[in-house]
Amino acid sequence: MLLFLQVIVCIALVIAVGTWLSQSADMLAEKTGLGRTWVGTILLAGVTSLPELATGTSAIVMFNSPDLAVGGILGSCLFNLLILALLDIYNGLAPLLKRAQISHGLAASLGCGMLGIAAGGMLLGKTETNLTVGWVGIPSVILLLLYFVSARTIAQFETRRRAEVLEEEAEVFQYQHITPVQAYRRFIILSAMIVILGVWLAFLGDRVAAVTGLGQSFIGALLLATATSLPEVVSSLAAVRLNAVDLAVSNVFGSNITNLAILGFYDFVYLQGSIWANISQIHIFTAVVGMIMTSVAITGLIYHAVSRSRMYITWDGLALIILYLGGMYVIYQNLL
């Protein structure tokens, strides 16, 4: 009973802190002049992805379980894309992606490419082709390099886009009463809190799975994946409620970019050899499903820029839900 009470308290705190964190990120986007897209893709996504880094590193270092770590990262990528469908429903009659900047397609495309590199690394890891430097696989190095290239590219693109917009219309400032120092301090404190709460929630989710007997099942793994992704869900919902749709959408695509960089980092802490050669090939399927879901999201982003759809859930949102559930079913069948 005490365990479930802790879970309830932790979830309530994640919801509260995640909401404040989204508002703080919105403040930071205004104060830095970098815009919601870059702040959401790099800063907010980086913070909300840190629980995956902590739990996955623990799985590798403490339990020698690279499959659990990689499965958690790729499962989180699929769940993040599912968040777009959930946000679409939460947004009401207007399509969510219609309210978002089409420039999010840049981050989404970069994430799709990184998923392809991950799938290629896993595929080649089972062959005789030597793709390692020491014990680290070359795909891992590429993923980490692409993360930094993505951060720089998105920052440059967003700076140019904002400059063009400002030539046509004046920027509206919402947080003039907040100083830059206050914005930075608040974001750092809330970031530390959400990371601690995310790791705590993942730990509690693991204990709940063990106590209820779900620890060895697919449901147990799904429970843990949901726990580590809750900060993304909460912060994205809060961003939509603040009318900061770009912050929410960029958080989703940015979380996937960050997750794939974390996947590359896992290879450095897995000292038994290249992680790509020591994981199940079912993860290739997960990565491919992630690429398809990302492609659907990009298509929806472009299509809704000129559409007049007033459906309660858009075709792309429905497709993301079907792909997620179908992917989880296939993975579940493989684990039987």
TrEMBL record:
Transmembrane segments: 68-90, 102-125, 131-151, 187-205, 217-240, 252-270, 282-306, 313-332
Gene3D superfamilies according to UniProt: NCX, central ion-binding region
Domain of life: Bacteria
Domain Sodium/calcium exchanger membrane region: 3-150, 187-331
Entry keyword set: Membrane, Transmembrane, Transmembrane helix
Membrane topology: Multi-pass membrane protein
Location of this chain's protein in the cell: Membrane
InterPro entries: K/Na/Ca-exchanger, NaCa_Exmemb, NCX_ion-bd_dom_sf
The keyword Transmembrane appears for this protein: yes
Keyword Transmembrane helix in annotation: yes
PANTHER family per record: INNER MEMBRANE PROTEIN YRBG, SODIUM/POTASSIUM/CALCIUM EXCHANGER
Name assigned to this protein: Sodium:calcium antiporter
Source organism (scientific name): Sphaerospermopsis torques-reginae ITEP-024
